[in-house]
Amino acid sequence: MLPKHPLVRLGLLPLAWFAFLFWLENFAIWGNRASSQSPAGDTTAHLMSLNSESSKPGHAPYGLHVFLAPAWLPLPQRFGELVFASYCQGEAAIAWQAADRLVIRCDAREIRTPPTSRRGIAVRLSSSPRQSPVNHWQPEPNAQETPAQNTP
Fold this sequence. Notes:
- This protein is of the alpha+beta class.
- The protein has helices spanning 6-28, 76-79; strands at 30-37, 43-50, 64-70, 81-98, 101-113, 122-126.
- The protein has a six-stranded mixed sheet.
- The longest helix has 23 residues, at 6-28.
- The termini are far apart.
- The chain crosses the membrane at residues 6-24.
- Keywords: Membrane, Transmembrane, Transmembrane helix.
């Protein structure tokens, strides 16, 4: 419900404008492609990209950015710590190997911010694509092949 006095209504206009700019800068420009909470549950890794041009385009405009932030913290692109920025070919993913190890899977073409360890978490880049387990059989290292015997 709006106040009846016109000066109070005009006073609400800057507040509405500020709210719109805050939304534009923090939600409309940045897109969250993936989030993954650490096994300990205290840190979240966010894989983000810019959706459109910005006055602060980041380290890799239109590329991927990985931020680490406490799990409770909103707006990781604003308050989190940048640990990786690059242009990746194809899909990218983030995965925790342990509570203190994060792996970024990305076929990196141009790295703007190399993987950096922050908050006690080692960040590693894995640029090799994951192989599908389907039709990808390899013998056990200790297995010995025995030739088939022909029996009459």
